[in-house]
Amino acid sequence: MAAGSSDDPFWGGEMIKGGNSFVPTVPLRFAVRAGVDVAALLLTEQGRVRGDGDIVFHGAPVHPSGAVRLLGQESGTVWLEAGLAALDEQIVRVLVVGSREAGPLRDADELSVEAFAPDGTPVARYDVTDAGGETAMVLAEVYRRAGGWKFRAVGQGYVNGLAGLVTDHGVDVAEGAPTPREQTPTRTPTQTPTQGQTPVPFQAPVPFQVPAPSAGQTPIPVPVPLQPSAPPPVFAPAAAPAPAAGAPVAPQRPGLPDWTFGAVFPPHTLTGRDNDVITVNGLPPGPAVVDLSIRGDGYTGLWPLTRFNKEGETLVNSTEEDFRGRVLAQVPESGRLRLQLKAEGPWQLQVLPLTAATRLTEDELERRGPDVLLHTGGTADLALHYRGEDNLIVNLFELEGHDDPTALPRDDNVVNEIGKRRETVPLPEGPVIVQLQMADGPWKARLKHLEPHSRPSHGAALPHGAGPSNGAGPTHVAGIGKAQGWLRRGRR
């Protein structure tokens, strides 16, 4: 039988200090309450930033990758967004930091941090009840665990302020030390403002609108804020600074909007050996991604089991050695997914939300086996180079105008060939699911001729009312000198 539990709770509610819980791998929005200053530190496995670019604060509100950004504040609540699926693999932790210039954190009234999914569902919350004389604190962190992400209530304070906090995480803030201790991140912004330009301004928040549920759909819960204000807003992208007169303007690359189709839930991971019947309970109904890896050289087959305990349509049919792939499965209304697995050797299976699938970009993606990919941009051409010997089957699920998150629309089969192939497939505007249903062997994929969206809201296939996405491209981030000035300016 499979080892490990599939009955973990979807996510945690209110936590005590040191508590942790899985959160969905989606663009989470953090509400930090009590009128404190907010920053984020992106850390590697060594617990250190790679450079000044990995510090997001009011003077540099967007990480060079665009994955973490300060969104603004309203009524004493500061909003921070972290696109977990978009974070560089080198980043294993993101710290949410609060600080005060005017006095210790014990004077901050009802200090708390709360995380929300894109549809407004609260997924974790920590109320700080033991703040003392410190002026800076790691309030919470999200960190990688078992293929997903967890939220931890930290509450670690620093009486020597932000300078002491960031020094503990790899930044030298001493006078005359204009460089970080480690090299800067390899990602660079696509547009660099000229000297003297101001950083990207915050955009005023737009009130969050809870959509009306469709027939038979459970209404989306509205988060209850700590203070009497609206639930978490959806923010428009921050406006990019205008270039100086006569300055060359770098070409803009379309941003990657947030993926909001389908339910969000933490990964469910099971392991075992050889043939088995796998049951995963407590899933939200609708399409999900099944990630399967097997160490062995025998036959691999995977089928969903119907309510009559009969095999459904084949998901995997492979003789590949050390099989690894991702397939689409439909979770029934009961929330109980049952799968028949035929395998020889040890295996691991994960059930993931659609949003955990890999986004297609103009950067080349190199994989092996069946897979589930997401196209979130405008019209584009998908270039595929398949080097396997067996079938290559590619299907598209176009979600524009499809408002039922519990089922997928009819697929469009765009490739069905045998053997090594080079294919170019025209893609409509996203959101689109690109399913490599069969692809035994290695392949490469990338987008060509990618266009911006013609629809401001990226289509109607946003069933949870997330509104316009926050998909602005990478933005200039201030240099080390600016961060040092901020850290030294009376915040100790």
Describe this protein's structure.
This protein has about 500 residues and is mainly β. It folds into three domains: about 15-205 and about 475-490, Lipoxygenase-1 (Sandwich), CATH 2.60.60.30; about 260-350, Jelly Rolls, CATH 2.60.120; about 355-465, Jelly Rolls, CATH 2.60.120. Helices cover about 5% and strands about 35% of the residues. The chain is built from two helices and 29 strands. The strands form six sheets. The protein has a six-stranded mixed β-sheet with strand order 1-10-9-3-7-6, with no helix packed on it. The protein has a six-stranded antiparallel β-sheet with strand order 2-12-11-8-4-5. A hairpin with a 2-residue loop joins strand 6 and strand 7. The longest helix has 9 residues, at about 480-490. The protein is elongated and about 70 Å long.
- List the uncertain runs: 1-10, 175-257, 456-482, 488-492
Approximate strand percentage: 35-45%
Distance between the termini: 55 Å
Assigned CATH architecture of the largest domain:
Sandwich
Return the domain count: 3
Summarize the helices and strands and which ones pair or pack.
Blueprint: E1 14-15, E2 20-23, E3 27-33, E4 37-43, E5 55-56, E6 68-74, E7 77-83, E8 93-99, E9 112-116, E10 122-127, E11 136-145, E12 148-158, H1 161-167, E13 268-273, E14 276-280, E15 286-294, E16 300-304, E17 316-318, E18 324-331, E19 337-342, E20 346-352, E21 358-359, E22 365-368, E23 371-375, E24 380-386, E25 391-398, E26 412-418, E27 421-427, E28 432-439, E29 442-448, H2 480-488
Parallel strand pairs: 1-10, 21-23
Antiparallel strand pairs: 2-12, 3-7, 3-9, 4-5, 4-8, 6-7, 8-11, 9-10, 11-12, 13-20, 14-19, 15-18, 15-20, 16-17, 16-19, 22-29, 23-28, 24-27, 24-29, 25-26, 25-28
